[in-house]
From TrEMBL:
Record bears the keyword Coiled coil: no
Organism: Amphibacillus indicireducens
Any Pfam family hit: ABC_tran
GO molecular function: ATP binding
Protein name from the UniProt record: ABC transporter ATP-binding protein
Length: 301
């Protein structure tokens, strides 16, 4: 399902939660909606899911006229899903299937398929109250798929999970994106970089950047040099910032991260300065800037 958003805005009295958002989501893509807590991600997803009415703007779904209820084509998982703990996983999926107007037989058939697909078929007859966090998220994702939607939207699907549960859900999303259009929000940049095809970067309710990972990496391509020292003094940051080939230096525990524009020039300048000043250099690593580096550059403009 192709989705077109034009000038989407949501206001609460004088507070603008989402400000003039415009973007396009093409069928078959997995897109990450990025932003810090409070950036407007949840409000955006709730408007797209039909749970909130926009103050202004247009939400267009390919093949559907404005005003038509398209919720039957959408699967939505909130950040904090609520389950009936006394139900088993199988009972819950059949229940939501029936709510989606499936017959009892259709709901059971879909539940069988999805429990296997999300990897919890062995626990289908166990009460949900006994499920781990990762198992609950897998069940939540299964319920978004029960009615075979064209688009699923997931709000912070891994933010509350431990490392094992997080890995389980990310692996599942990697598999699901082969067949389903996915839009998911997150403030964990590594997750977005790992499984998404494109990014939408929100900051204070506004969309500040968007595009494919390849295009954004090329646009913001930079390298960095990570430095560690036995002893860090107050004047080192200032001296590093004055060296040729370096755009910016950020202090980190035990050292610095230098964003550079000329790796050869910066390498020679840093090593020469370290030798002249007798700095106790313990680590010198050249690497590509991360998605986090790009995000910080965008929001600080």
């Amino acid at each position: 399902m192709e989705l077109l958003i034009e000038n989407l805005t949501k206001k609460y009295n004088q507070h603008v939660a989402v400000n003039d958002l415009s973007f396009q989501l093409k069928s078959g893509n997995c897109i990450a909606l990025l932003g810090a807590n409070g950036a407007g991600k949840t409000t955006t997803l709730r408007m797209l899911a039909g749970l909130l009415t926009p103050t202004a703007g247009v939400i267009k779904f390919e093949g559907y006229q404005n005003g038509i209820d398209i919720r039957s084509k959408i699967g939505y998982l909130p950040q904090h899903p609520v389950f009936h703990g006394w139900m088993t996983g199988n009972e819950f999926l059949v229940y939501v299937g029936r709510l989606a107007n499936l017959t009892k037989l259709e709901a059971q058939q879909r539940a069988d398929v999805l429990l296997e697909q999300v990897g919890i078929s062995d626990a289908k007859n166990i009460r949900i109250s006994k499920y781990s966090g990762g198992m609950r998220q897998r069940l939540g994702i299964a319920q978004t798929l029960i009615h075979k939607p064209s688009l699923i939207m997931l709000d912070e699907p891994v933010s509350a999970l431990d490392p094992i549960g997080r890995r389980e859900v990310l692996t599942l999303l990697e598999e699901l994106k082969q067949d389903t259009t996915i839009l998911f929000s997150t403030h964990i940049l590594n997750d977005a970089e790992e499984i998404s095809d494109g990014l939408l970067l929100m900051h204070e309710g506004a969309l500040v950047e968007q595009g494919s990972l390849t295009d954004l990496r090329e646009k913001y391509q930079s390298q960095k040099i990570e430095l560690s020292f036995k002893t860090v003094t107050e004047d080192m940051l200032e001296q590093l910032n004055q060296l040729p080939g370096i755009d910016q230096v950020n202090a980190e525990r035990g050292g610095f991260v230098c964003l550079i524009n000329d790796v050869n020039q910066a390498r020679e300048a840093i090593l020469t300065k370290a030798l002249a000043m007798e700095w106790d250099l313990t680590n010198f690593t050249v690497s590509r800037a991360t998605l986090e580096d790009m995000f910080m550059e965008v929001v600080n403009k």
